[in-house]
């Protein structure tokens, strides 16, 4: 069989049994899996129809985290540091933004059996050894035991180091919000970085991420990484397909299985800011400089993080006083 020449219909038919088994065997999450081992999600790209229900679910679920910036933005020095403001473009869904943590890419490819459209949901890959966490100078990002990487919006200063070291440039910045406004507004950071946190609060309770639950096509499954990797290769073997995420950047907790090679998908998708590619990725943290930086940064970030928490506590105390003065029940003040 020509691996590149499989139609969506033939592909769906051939792999349905394996895919069904994969979807049902992974839910619900067990307490053991929650606490003790990395969890991975597997996207079966044969099934995605690009309906965007997952994108809507993600936006609904995470509304409460979305930034409410303060204006005017502080002037930054040096002047080349630009403000990034998505607050008046909150409806944008065709790329990643601070208000849109999941986007669907489309690849129209030609195969030996005809034209095929593949839709690819894109968000944080939740790397096994995440450079965004290891190289954040402020200790604002951390990795949960179950492998989810999370940026703490209360501690992030928006310097965008996480975006610079992320092989997919995933985190997105919103200016005019966060701790930097209280510390050194003109000189340190420039807002807060936002990305998919894989609904870590839901997962901690044994629930699925919203994008998994709301998908009408059961595109994603979630479970212990080892099982998800095995399943990805099982499906790939069954259909003569390909896996992305097992090896990229040293391995990620987001896996994709596709009927056509990822090089082909990568050539066909729109790429650019907020539009991650699907190229092969070397392991950022295997680089000697990155490892040295991580070793150096770990204690520094710990101290900075502790100081930031003190600043945050003071900030919240100040906010409490302000709120008493201008009490408006039900309205969250994101400005201080
Ligand atoms: S993953 Fe599911 S919900 Fe999201 S676009 Fe694909 S089919 Fe629709
Ligand atoms: S994909 Fe990027 S933002 Fe996500 S965990 Fe990996 S390095 Fe961090
Ligand atoms: S896991 Fe949660 S935060 Fe991440 S894309 Fe899905 S719904 Fe959004």
Q: List bound small molecules.
A: iron/sulfur cluster
Shape: globular
Class computed from helices, strands and strand pairing: alpha+beta
Q: What percent of the residues sit in helical stretches (DSSP H or I)?
A: 25-40%
Largest sheet: 4 strands, mixed
Q: For the largest beta sheet, what order do the strands appear in spatially? A: 8-1-10-9
Question: How would you describe this structure to a colleague?
Answer:
33% of the residues lie in helices and 15% in strands. With 336 residues, the protein is α+β, with helices and mostly antiparallel strands. The protein has a single domain, classed as Alpha-Beta Plaits (2-Layer Sandwich), CATH 3.30.70. The strands form four sheets. The chain has a four-stranded mixed β-sheet with strand order 8-1-10-9, covered by helices on one side. It has a two-stranded antiparallel sheet with strand order 2-3. Helix 1 runs antiparallel to helix 8 (225-239). The chain is globular. The N and C termini lie far apart (61 Å). The model is unreliable at 1-28 and 323-336 (pLDDT under 50). One iron/sulfur cluster (SF4) is lined by residues 124-127, 130-132, 149, 162, 166, 168, 170-171, 195. One iron/sulfur cluster is lined by residues 124-127, 130-132, 149, 162, 166, 168, 170-171, 195.
């Amino acid at each position: 069989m020509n691996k590149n020449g499989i139609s969506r219909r033939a592909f769906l038919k051939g792999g349905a049994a394996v895919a069904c088994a994969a979807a049902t065997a992974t839910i619900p999450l067990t307490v053991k899996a929650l606490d003790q081992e990395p969890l991975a999600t597997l996207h079966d790209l044969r099934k995605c129809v690009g309906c965007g229900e997952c994108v809507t679910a993600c936006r609904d679920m995470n509304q409460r985290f979305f930034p409410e910036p303060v204006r005017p933005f502080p002037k930054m020095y040096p002047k080349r540091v630009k403000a990034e403001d998505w607050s008046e473009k909150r409806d944008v869904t065709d790329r990643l933004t601070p208000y849109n943590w999941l986007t669907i890419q489309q690849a129209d490819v030609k195969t030996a059996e005809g034209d095929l459209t593949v839709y690819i949901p894109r968000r944080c890959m939740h790397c096994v050894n995440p450079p965004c966490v290891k190289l954040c100078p402020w200790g604002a990002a951390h990795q949960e035991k179950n492998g989810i990487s999370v940026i703490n919006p209360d501690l992030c200063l928006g310097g965008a180091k996480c975006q610079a070291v992320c092989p997919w440039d995933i985190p997105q910045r919103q200016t005019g919000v966060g701790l930097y406004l209280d510390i050194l507004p003109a000189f340190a950071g420039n807002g807060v970085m936002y990305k998919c946190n894989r609904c870590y609060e839901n997962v901690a309770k044994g629930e699925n991420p919203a994008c998994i639950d709301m998908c009408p096509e059961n595109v994603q499954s979630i479970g212990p990484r080892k099982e998800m990797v095995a399943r990805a290769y099982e499906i790939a073997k069954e259909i003569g397909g390909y896996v992305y995420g097992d090896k990229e950047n040293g391995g990620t907790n987001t896996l994709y299985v596709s009927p056509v090679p990822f090089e082909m998908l990568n050539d066909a998708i729109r790429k650019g800011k907020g539009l991650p590619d699907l190229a092969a990725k070397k392991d950022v943290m295997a680089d000697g400089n990155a490892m040295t930086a991580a070793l150096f940064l770990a204690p520094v970030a710990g101290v900075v993080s502790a100081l930031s928490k003190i600043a945050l506590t003071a900030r919240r105390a100040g906010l409490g006083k302000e709120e008493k003065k201008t009490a408006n029940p039900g309205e969250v003040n994101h400005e201080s």
